[in-house]
Amino acid sequence: MSGTLIGQVALIEDDYTLVINRGADAGVVAGMVFAVYSGAPQVITDPESGRELGRLNREKLRVRVFDVAPLFARAHTFVDTGDLHGLLELPFFEQPHEDVVTVTVDVGDGVELVSAQSGTQRATGTHE
Question: Domain of life here (predicted)?
Fold first, then answer.
């Protein structure tokens, strides 16, 4: 991969499907996996110098692209059982239950390509 493919959540269709604001014109193809991050990254500042050291993105979940248009792509929640974050399949919005983490995805949340290899990972949490 040359360069990072980043974008934002443009629309939330349902509890398992979202639309990102990048499509075929940007090189998106079905099978790509994107990480969805909290809105703005947290700035890390050096307490001694006050200089910005970097930014920390908080990953909410991962989605796999299944439908691509020229300017946008639709993606389902994605569970990778080899990844600690993917051990639990959680929809974007859940009814509150004891000991359950609620994942809320918002329009404007950032997305970043984490895997462009469409045939090498298993989708175990896709919902039609």
Answer: Bacteria
- pLDDT 10s digits, 4-23: 899 999 999 988 899 999 99
Closest CA to 57 of 85, 70, 38: 38
CATH code linked to domain 6-87+99-115: 2.40.10.410
Report the alpha-carbon distance of residue 119 to residue 83 in Å, rounded: 17
Q: How many residues does the chain have?
A: 128
**Cα dist from 80 to 44, 85, 112, whole Å:** 29, 8, 16
Domain ranges, ordered by start, for the chain: 6-87+99-115
Lowest mean pLDDT among 12-21, 32-41, 102-111: 102-111
